[in-house]
Design goal:
Strand content: 25-35%
Number of strands: 18
Structural class: alpha+beta
Number of helices: 8
Distance between the termini: 9 Å
Shape: globular
Largest sheet: 7 strands, mixed
Helix content: 25-40%
Length: about 325
């Protein structure tokens, strides 16, 4: 197959952590052509999506004494072409959030790929319709009690009713801007005003889940089916469990309750064309649905001795009937 990956500049990626690299490496090892591009290198010509692509070869990382070790250099760039993306068997949209205007424009360009010819993972319209905080709200049976508002009094009333709550900006990533709210905090009004830009931008406020201290589980779903999970634990002096905030990871299992959550979201994910997704679960509650460039494969592979990237590429092969 010929596979195109829309990524951030490859030199900025960490081969021992980034899921995008794990997917590209798996494709390369399995004998497929791997091509890379960036969102700003996409075009529409004669009603079709085109891109400036570069062929890339990857040197697989190795597990040494429980740690991933990469070669130096770990990739080699080959020829550069300008071509219709419909010449590819699949296109992976793997640009990291936040979802800026340029990110959205890239998804509009990807709409001009005929998905009967070329798979696009994830669906451009699916990505646009799935804000990673807001998307979870439709699964009311499995999320903690949640409000979304820019109104200060509504937020104060919620916090006073719950005692402790968590505020999340709707557009951030990697734990940025997440805050603990308590009614006794003399800074509460200021926190709300700053987070909502003086009542102009809505935020998400959720009931605090005490089990958060036991970790935030990332579960990877492929075509609606869970294929692996990792538990993320907060660093000392930090309540956020994100790896970007210094958190660590631990081996884990998917519980019966979490399988139920996966089943609850699977049908909607498939309907929206969201093939490769990471959901976050705390204390048996769904908290986020990550669809832009979900990560976690490298950590799961290291802890569970798996190769989830190979499962993803095998799914593409089967979907393309190869």
């Amino acid at each position: 197959m010929k596979l195109a990956f829309i990524i951030d500049p490859i030199q900025t990626l960490d081969p021992c952590h980034d899921t995008s690299v794990a997917l590209m490496e798996a494709a390369h090892v399995m004998g497929h052509e791997v091509w890379i591009t960036q969102a700003n290198l996409l075009s529409v010509v004669a009603g079709k999506a085109w891109a400036i692509l570069e062929r890339v070869e990857l040197m697989p990382i190795e597990l040494v004494e429980g740690r991933w070790v990469a070669a130096s250099p770990w990739y080699k760039i080959g020829k550069r072409i300008y071509v219709s993306l419909e010449t590819m068997d699949a296109v992976f949209m793997r640009t990291d959030p936040p979802v800026t205007a340029s990110y959205l424009y890239a998804t509009y360009i990807l709409d001009y790929i005929d998905q009967n010819k070329t798979l696009v993972i994830n669906s451009p319209s699916g990505i646009r319709g799935a804000n990673e905080k807001m998307y979870a709200l439709q699964f009311t049976k499995v999320i903690p009690e949640t409000i979304v508002t820019a109104d200060k009094q509504t937020i104060r009333d919620f916090v006073e009713a719950k005692g402790t709550a968590v505020l999340k900006p709707l557009g951030n990533k990697a734990g940025e801007g997440i805050l603990i709210l308590q009614p006794s905090d003399r800074n509460l009004n200021s926190i709300i005003e700053l987070s909502t830009l003086q009542g102009r931008v809505p935020v998400m406020v959720q009931n605090f889940i005490p089990e958060a201290k036991e970790g935030d589980k990332r579960i990877i779903l492929l075509d609606g089916k869970p294929i692996g999970a990792v538990n993320r634990l907060s660093a000392s002096g930090e309540f956020r469990n994100n790896m970007a905030t210094g958190g660590t990871v631990a081996k884990t299992e998917i519980t019966p309750k979490e399988y139920e959550i996966c089943s609850e979201v699977a049908k909607i994910l498939r309907k929206d064309g969201l093939v490769f997704v990471g959901i976050d679960v705390i204390g048996g509650y769904l908290t986020e649905v990550n669809v832009t460039s979900p990560t976690g494969i490298r950590e799961i592979d290291r802890l569970d001795d798996t190769r989830l990237g190979h499962l993803v590429i095998r799914w593409v092969e089967q979907t393309k009937n190869l």
